[in-house]
Design a protein that fits this description.
46% of the residues lie in helices and 13% in strands. It has an 8-stranded mixed sheet with strand order 3-4-2-5-1-6-7-10, with helices on both faces. The protein has a two-stranded antiparallel sheet with strand order 8-9. By secondary structure, the protein is an alpha/beta fold. It has a single domain, classed as Rossmann fold (3-Layer(aba) Sandwich).
């Protein structure tokens, strides 16, 4: 069964889409079959992977008779159609046969209010009982169709019902961060919000009406894999002072706020398993990946991608796998970019290995 990993932070601009794409690609490089899912109505992941530039590009996909995006996949449940939810026809990704995209849809936001009503767990739920389990059902059917090992869910920066559902029906979650004041403050709000979501999910799992639904609400206990701190500037091999201050603030917030809250709500893996994952990789510079024996340390710590990110988006390739032609430089500049690219390749490789270790051994620790 595919392992579902949600990438979530209610603060925008923290690199969720970039991480979903690059981490998914690296997991696929390691032989894992991966589906990346665009659950953000802004559809940035879909646009990047498929090369869509405007509304007309999206319209061609939305007018297809087949089920080719997340909104059409959920329509049988949300629009009370007689047909059952079926697997989405995912988009293949050029250059990576082990990874597929489940495209997003701007209209997914239209289902937010209805799902919110259904998730109030009130007496009116009878007519809406199939909605809370529908997202998980759709992903599971699609994962079965493609024999997927991992589902990576790119979520919007909101605290709405759809995100509540996505995170609480996942197996694991990652919290991407940008080193600034708002991400530091996000640790406090997430420490309050996510336990409330967990309590809601625990209540929902006990309701017979949700278990007897056509799309049963799953019995999931999402576990925290870690944070990813990225997109900071580096000087002389270490993060610039202005960024380092916020990196330390985020680490402190995770350690003193998030981890205690997650521990109290059964949202952590064992210390032994975190320690096992920490033994993968050896580089300990500021450009490197960190994962010590406590979950309060970042799962990934990545400096600014600089021009690599623009080229990655242009060529629909990961930042660590661009060709010399795609880099569009020569001489010393080309060599510098290739050196940076190799560094990111090593980081994402270690990150993928650690995620594999954490998720494949979760039941053994």
């Amino acid at each position: 069964m595919a392992k579902q990993i949600a990438l979530f932070n209610h603060k925008g601009g923290v690199g969720k889409t970039t991480t979903t794409f690059n981490l998914g690609w690296m997991l696929a490089n390691k032989g894992k079959k991966v589906i990346i899912v665009d659950c953000d109505p802004q559809c940035n992941l879909t646009g990047m992977v498929l090369g869509f530039k405007d509304a007309e590009d999206f319209a061609s996909m939305y007018t297809s008779d087949a089920v080719t995006n997340i909104r059409d996949g959920l329509a049988p449940a949300f629009e009370s159609r007689p047909a059952l939810i079926e697997a989405v026809d995912c988009a293949p990704i050029k250059g990576q046969p082990n990874m597929h995209l489940l495209p997003g849809h701007i209209g997914l936001a239209e289902y937010e209010v209805t799902l919110g009503i259904a998730q109030e767990l009130s007496g009116s739920l009878v007519t809406l009982q199939n909605l809370p389990g529908s997202l998980y059902y759709l992903f599971s059917k699609t994962a079965d169709k493609y024999n997927a090992d991992f589902i990576l869910v790119d979520m919007s920066p909101s605290l709405g019902p759809i995100n509540q559902n996505l995170l609480m029906t996942s197996d694991y979650f990652i919290v991407p961060m940008f080193p600034d004041y708002f991400s530091a403050m996000a640790t406090e709000s997430l420490a309050s919000i996510l336990p409330k979501w967990a309590a809601w999910a625990q209540q929902g799992k006990k309701l017979p009406i949700l278990q007897q639904a056509i799309y049963p609400f799953p019995d999931k206990h999402p576990k925290f894999l870690g944070t990813i701190i990225q997109n900071f500037r580096v000087k002389k091999g270490i993060s610039a002072a202005a960024f380092q201050r916020w990196i330390e603030e985020i680490k402190m917030g995770v350690q003193t706020k998030l981890i205690p809250a997650f521990s109290e709500n059964n949202m952590l893996l064992s210390d032994e398993l975190y320690q096992k994952a920490s033994e993968i990789g050896s580089d300990s510079t500021q450009l490197s990946l960190f994962f010590y024996n406590i979950a309060s340390q970042p799962l990934l710590q990545l400096s600014d991608f600089n021009t690599l990110i623009a080229l990655s988006q242009e060529h629909k390739a990961p930042v660590f796998d661009l060709s010399d032609e795609q880099l569009e430089k020569e001489g010393i500049v080309l060599e510098k970019m290739k050196k940076s690219m190799i560094k990111f390749r090593d980081l994402f490789s270690d990150g993928a290995e650690r995620i594999i270790t954490l998720t494949e051994n979760a039941e053994s620790y």
